Amino acid sequence: MTLVRRRRHQEALKLSLPRLAQFRHQTRLPAPTLLNNPDSPGIENLEKLSVLGHGTGGTVYKVRHCRTHKIYALKTLRWDQSMTAFLHEAEILKRVSSEFILRCHSVCDTGSNPDSDQCFVMEYMEGGSLHDLLRARARLPEYMISDLASRVLQGLHYLHSMQIIHRDIKPSNLLINGNGDVKIADFGVSRGWPGVKDPYQDSCAGTCAYMSPERFDPERWGGDNANGFAGDVWALGVVVLECYMGRFPLIGLGQKPDWATLMCAICFGETPKVPETASRELRDFAGRCLEKDWRRRATVVELLSHPFVSRGSDGGGGNTNVEMSSTVLPT
Ligand SMILES: Nc1ncnc2c1ncn2[C@@H]1O[C@H](COP(=O)(O)OP(=O)(O)OP(=O)(O)O)[C@@H](O)[C@H]1O
Asked: How confident is the model at residue 304 (pLDDT cuts 50, 70, 90)?
């Protein structure tokens, strides 16, 4: 999938692991910058175990605390011009604390030389991302989709109540822990609360495949007046359909997901069709999220009481988790 990212676009990814010794000198940020928990792990105590994945801006490692043996995910971002964006993300992470949001334990940089990395010490999510899960399983059953939609909605409700707009909801930013619980991650392009400088004031920040019509083409879809929250709802609708159909749902099979194709599909195409095989609840839920006019789109609060997600929380929740974790966990 072609991604349009305004942040962290640099040279090819470095695959080599930074040496632990590098972690000992922290100059740019007084290190580690502790977040919610005073017992947060300092980076000098972390031992790298393996690479969990690569993103546009850096690498994520599985690490172990030397003393407590607790496992964390260390997300490193290469040093570039985006210090403002990094600090912006750190500022958001410092303030959020919810069971529906990936926990960040500390923020630091890994060395004193100008090319060194900045990093986040994050909660380790054994199940990897929803993107990994979809690659392994292609389609998900409705009760799992309902469970994950419910959790993402609760996370969005929490964020929106703090005036934070995520702006990059997509499968690779939804992580799954050992209990099968989905959490929202990656605030790299999020918009914070009023008064906090937004390094991505334009509407282009994020991943264009999951971008709502009013963000993609503000002129046509009244994006200049949009409050932004509706864009997160649209992205959730795309994710729900993707989980059900087992492929990116907004373009046809075999179509290349380049910018022009996505633009046509999202801004000019028909409202995405939900397969007839889906339950009435899922079809209605996705349709309410994928309403092109953001003023008519359902809000997070409305969706929280939608039958598609409210049925997910009764009875089957425990099973959902067991199946999710047992099917997904790669290691
Ligand atoms: N806390 C975590 N626990 C376990 N695995 C993780 C964690 N964070 C990230 N990963 C793994 O590392 C991969 C890369 O994550 P990262 O956030 O750097 O990039 P991305 O979101 O996939 O892509 P991009 O940031 O370019 O949009 C993820 O897809 C996931 O498989």
From this structure: very high
Please state whether the peptide bond connecting residue 32 to the residue before it is cis, i.e. omega within 30 degrees of 0: yes
70 annotated ligand binder? no
Residue 210 to residues 46, 91, 115, 274, 291, Cα–Cα distance (Å): 35, 25, 32, 16, 14
Task: Tell me the DSSP string of 220-268.
Answer: HHTGGG--SHHHHHHHHHHHHHHHHHSS-TTS-TT----HHHHHIIIII
Using CA atoms, how far apart are residues 285 and 298, in angstroms rounded to an integer? Answer: 9
35 Cβ contact partners less than 8 Å away, ≥ 6 residues apart: 93, 94, 104, 105, 106, 107
| Euclidean distance between CA atoms 216 and 262, whole angstroms | 9
Please state, in angstroms and rounded to a whole number, the distance separating the CA atoms of residues 304 and 298: 10
Q: 128-193+202-311: which CATH number, 1.10.10.10, 3.30.70.270, 1.10.510.10, 1.10.287.3610?
A: 1.10.510.10
By most ligand atoms within 8 Å of CB, the mutation choice from 6, 129, 207 for ligand 1 is: 129
CA distance 271 to 291: 7
Q: What is the ipTM of this complex?
A: 0.95
328 forms beta bridges with: none
| Residue matched to tokens 């060194």 | 116
Rounded distance from Cα 240 to ligand 1 centre (Å):
19
Tell me which architecture the domain covering 46-123 has in CATH: 2-Layer Sandwich (3.30)
Please state, in angstroms and rounded to a whole number, the distance separating the CA atoms of residues 182 and 329.
Answer: 13
pLDDT of 195 > 70? The answer is no
Mutational test site, ligand 1, from 5, 50, 52, max ligand atoms within 8 Å of CB = 52
